[in-house]
Design goal:
single chain; mainly alpha; 166 residues
């Protein structure tokens, strides 16, 4: 393990959360002295401590170890989370011709594509259908990114606290 990166990331995380070493140590069920050693490059946390930090503060172990620059983990708990991730994916892959063309909703409210996706969740199918219609307009340059984002925000608001059923 790279002690320098781990120590910097731990300290950065703690400071961003406005926690003292004592408070963070208590949250993690370790001593403040142990945390101080981790932050001072004297010792490395055990894998169990790294996992505890990742779970408690929703950061990735890869980020803590310096293997990734993305600190957060992506946990899809609500339909809003799914929609936000699909939006970000669609926008980031725009130049690669990523699109939802060929997507349909059948009479059973199942979301289907010409390829391999089949979603039997009517709530998710509804959201993807609404997103898809606006996304096609965006891809055809009928609406701009602001309109697409406004539609996504509106859909996210509709389903913000509705948890996914799996």
């Amino acid at each position: 393990m790279n002690t320098l990166i781990i120590s910097k990331r731990l300290k950065e995380l703690r400071q961003n959360l406005n926690l003292t070493q004592r408070e963070m140590a208590k949250d993690l069920d370790i001593t403040a002295a142990a945390l101080s050693k981790y932050e001072s490059e004297i010792a490395n946390p055990s894998i169990n401590v790294l996992i505890a930090i990742a779970k408690k503060y929703n950061v990735s172990v890869d980020w803590l170890l310096g293997l990734s620059d993305n600190s957060t983990t992506t946990e899809l708990k609500t339909y809003s989370d799914v929609l936000e991730n699909i939006f970000q994916l669609a926008i980031s892959l725009n130049d690669l011709e990523f699109d939802f063309e060929g997507v349909t909703i059948n009479e059973k409210e199942e979301f289907k594509t010409d390829t391999y996706i089949s979603i039997n969740d009517s709530s998710l199918a509804f959201l993807l259908d609404k997103f898809n219609k606006t996304y096609i307009l965006y891809k055809n340059q009928t609406v701009d990114i602001d309109v697409l984002q406004a539609v996504v925000e509106s859909l996210k608001k509709e389903c913000k606290n509705k948890e996914i059923g799996f």
